[in-house]
Amino acid sequence: MKGLVITYVITALATVGALRSPLIGLYVYVGFAVLRPQALFGWAGDMSYLSLSVGIAMLIGWAAQGFGSWNFGRARPVVVALLLYFGWLILSAFFALNTERAFAQVSYLARVVLPVLVGATMIREEKHWRRLLWTIVLCQGYVGLEMHIEYLIKGRNAAHIGFARMDNNFFALSLVTTLGPAVALAIASRKWWERGLAALASALILHTTLLTFSRGGMVGLLAVGAVAIVMMPKRPKYIGAIVLTAMLAVWLTGPELAARYRTTLSGRDQRDTSAQSRLDLWRDCLRVIGEYPVLGVGPANWRVIAFRYGWPPGKSAHSVWMEMAAEIGIPGALFMLMFFCLAAMKLWPIARARGPDTSDPYAQAMAGGTVLAVVGFVVTGQFVSAPFLEGPYYVVMAGAGLLAGTAAATTAAVVGKPAGPPSTHIAFTARTARGTSR
After folding, report:
1. Are 204 and 144 in contact (CB under 8 A)?
2. Which of 10, 35, 49, 341 is most open to solvent, judged by the fewest CB atoms within 10 Å of its CB?
3. What CA–CA distances, in Å, run from 116 to 125, 132, 278, 314, 395?
């Protein structure tokens, strides 16, 4: 009951505060998207109006401040890719087999795209994207805590069932995409209690991912770990964090998950029904892509035509990329992929920073966390149909704010004007330029 009361208080304060400072509304809106209070307090009835009220106040405050700054600097390709993706989705909806379902999907994505634009146009300082990163990690860590209370105290593996209308695979995807940022914060935080809090969130997120028994989630974890090894500076604290996380994952992996994971590498004769059905679904998606390569069958329309290929009506394709290409065509799926991959490419030099005198720990954490979130989403997404999962979009939004902030700080330095509170953005840009010229 106390948690519900606190949620209402936060909603009221954020709704009022967002009118003056849209970023306040953005933090709470993003937090609710990850925390999903309607699932935590399901007995209280429909709570969707909480996010709606905060979101409307955020947009009003954003408009009152002139819609922020549209000088995105190095983040421009990322924002352009998002707008192209959203525009292509709308175009595909006009030619969809079922336009009502298609435009309902467009409306849902708009609730993600608009907050991303708010963040991309207003996040410029370190404190902005640092707060956003902490919001995402702590909210996901709290969800993991709730899953562990169910598992350890009540004796029920709720994560294997799913969370907030997400099945176990969908839930695993949301967890994998926040593990990287959580570990990055645990490494970069300056205060011991911050490190402890981030480390606890990392452990909760990691173990909850394993409790989902999702093979796609496990593949995503392996990909995140491999990229982290390549990306992280080879210094003791980074290597120690990676080794510790890997050891924890191995220790927590039970025989049931290990057996399920082995089936993804088995031959056709030994592969279980679930694993084989995914391959069959992807094959049928390729057939649809061949028939509708440009605009697809329309957003949310694969499930409408799934029965044509022998699947039950409403059957998911179990792949973000295969389903999106079938629904909005190859160009639309590529625009979506570009949004995530361009952000990772732009942030990679910052994440690879070396030497304490040339990099800020939080900037490196933000960059590295975003790269790992993208890797987790792209890889795990191949096994889960969750194209509009909010978390990855919001992590990339924070990364875009970091990239835009470097440009703003550099411009301010050139004209001799301060770029705001003391930050290390100019050093980031100088360091990146040195790294590029090598």
Report:
1. yes
2. 49
3. 16, 12, 31, 29, 9
Alpha carbons 245 and 247: distance in angstroms, whole number:
5
Distance separating alpha carbons of residues 47 and 52, to the nearest angstrom: 9
Cα gap 404→69, rounded to integer Å: 10
Question: Could you tell me which of 263, 269, 301 has the C-alpha nearest to residue 285?
Answer: 301
Q: What is the largest CA-CA distance in the chain?
A: 69
- Check: CB of residue 69 under 8 Å from CB of residue 270: no
* Partners of residue 166 on adjacent β-strands: 163
Taking the chain, what is the end-to-end CA distance rounded to the nearest angstrom? 58
Task: With a cut of 90, say whether residue 187 has pLDDT above it.
Answer: no
Q: DSSP characters for 239-291?
A: HHHHHHHHHHHHHH--HHHHHHHHGGGS-TTTS-HHHHHHHHHHHHHHHHHHH
Instruction: Please give the Cα distance from 80 to 339 (Å, whole number).
Output: 8
Dihedral sign for Cα atoms in the order 38, 178, 166, 323: positive
Q: Which residues pair with 18 in a beta bridge?
A: none
Q: 382-396 burial, b if ≥16 CB within 10 A, otherwise e? A: bbbbbbbbbbbbbbb
- What single-letter amino acid sits at 239? I
Task: Classify residue 311 by its DSSP letter.
Answer: P
Contact in structure between 102 and 92 (CB atoms under 8 Å): yes
345-394 confidence digits (pLDDT tens): 999 988 887 544 345 777 888 899 999 999 999 999 999 888 889 999 99
Q: How far apart are CA 327 and CA 321, in angstroms?
A: 10
The contacts of residue 236 (CB under 8 Å, 6+ apart) are none
Is the model's pTM score more than 0.90? no
| Strand-pair partners of 163 | 166
**Is the CB of residue 126 less than 8 Å from the CB of residue 360?**
yes
- Reading the block at residue 70, the tokens are 């549209």
The answer to whether residues 89 and 106 touch, using CB atoms and an 8 Å cutoff, is: yes
